[in-house]
Design goal:
By secondary structure, the protein is α/β, with parallel strands linked by helices. The chain is built from 14 helices and twelve strands.
């Protein structure tokens, strides 16, 4: 149940990451492997009054991946980066999950390349919890795959349903496809085919849902492509900041506003907590061999603590095994549907193969940044 944490990733690393790890160990009994500059991590432990123990260990990594660094650069260089070393700990079986608040593109590239995907999963997806009436709804994909095929929507739905059921504790998650209307005639060619496929599964599929349904408590798992999902997520985050700012203005303007705040302070605190992303912690990248948790770059110690909690709960529930079993249980007419292996999937496969070849031969990968460059030269 060890969770490998990229302690050098994030806007406030390593301080916030080390503090969050200490809190997770103290509150949840989580087992954490901090990966990063050994001297810097020990300085942070001393500053915070913590120390290495059976539940909190350190592994040295001499490099780190910058927030603005390209995923290709992260793949080609920095063999001793804290992010890569943490992911390799999962690959080697020394840890069950990896967590990083650093470069999300590099995290995605290295996780897919090094860990690979689960059996039956073509593309991993980022799932994030968004505030909704009665709790939270799970949105996926939140940014990993900009273009998807209908079968990918089915796989996303399966992964989201398992996550919502086992980790979020929803007995029978209601699953819907995000569209521009509830009618079956709405949507795109992709969503319409996905809609028909999902009706044949055994999950609690409720059909199309609209943007206005994301927060009203009528759906637990919202499935879409990564482009749409990321735009929807950023829109919700922006409105949450806007709403809180407007409320602060109202309550701080004049004596009436201040008195009103005193009367509803407790309720307002609950509202603010429901909109606080640090309460959720991290967004799991579902579908990889070994769990990967992507935390926000500006994660506070509280956010890191909660991201470790999500990783720990996911490991204890053994969600990867459940995802594989659920996908294998799909009806034959769905299980036999194969996605067209176009640019996205082919590029990831080529990146993975090149990286592995370079690692085995101890040579640098080709200088070109286009994964298909070598094929073009041969032609």
């Amino acid at each position: 149940m060890v969770i490998a944490v990229d302690a050098m990733g994030g806007d406030h690393a390593p301080g916030a990451v080390v503090e969050g790890a200490l809190q997770a160990v103290a509150e949840y009994g989580a087992s954490v492997l901090l990966v990063g500059d050994q001297e810097a991590l020990r300085r942070e432990l001393d500053r915070l009054g913590g120390q290495e123990s059976a539940l909190l260990t350190i592994r040295h990594a001499s490099e780190s991946v910058d927030m603005g660094e390209s995923p290709i650069a992260a793949l080609r260089g920095k063999p001793d980066s804290s992010l890569r070393v943490a992911i390799q700990a999962v690959k080697a079986g020394e840890a069950g999950a990896v967590l990083s608040a650093g470069n999300s593109g590099a995290m995605l590239a290295l996780a897919v390349t090094i860990l690979g995907t689960l059996r039956g999963v073509d593309r991993p997806a980022i799932v994030t919890a968004i505030p909704a009436l009665g709790g939270h709804a799970c949105l996926l994909d939140a940014g990993a795959n900009t273009e998807c095929k209908p079968i990918h929507f089915v796989q996303f739905a399966i992964m989201g349903e398992v996550y919502a059921r086992l980790v979020r504790g929803i007995a029978s998650p209601r699953v819907g496809v995000l569209s521009n209307g509830e009618e079956e005639s709405k949507g795109t060619d992709t969503t319409r085919v996905a809609h028909e496929l999902l009706k044949k599964t055994t999950i609690n599929y409720i059909g199309y849902v609209e943007g206005r349904d994301m927060n009203n408590g009528t759906v637990d798992v919202i499935v879409t492509d990564g482009f749409t999902g990321n735009v929807a997520l950023k829109t919700l985050e922006g409105f949450a900041h806007f709403l809180q700012g407007q409320l602060r203005t109202v309550f701080s303007s004049g004596m009436r506003g201040k008195l009103s705040y005193l009367l509803i302070r407790k309720a307002f605190g609950s509202l603010r907590a429901s909109l606080d992303p640090s309460e959720v912690g991290g967004a799991p990248l579902l579908g990889t061999e070994g769990l990967a948790i992507i935390a926000h770059g500006a994660s506070s110690p509280k956010a890191i603590k909660n991201a470790i909690r999500v990783a720990d709960e996911s490991l204890r529930q053994d969600i990867n095994r459940q995802i594989v079993e659920s996908i294998q249980a799909l009806p034959p007419e769905i299980a036999l549907v194969q996605p067209e292996q176009k640019s996205g999937r082919r590029i990831w496969a080529q990146i993975r193969d090149r990286f592995r070849h370079a690692r085995e031969s101890h040579e640098s990968p080709p200088a070109t940044e286009h994964p298909a460059g070598e094929e073009k030269k041969k032609e």
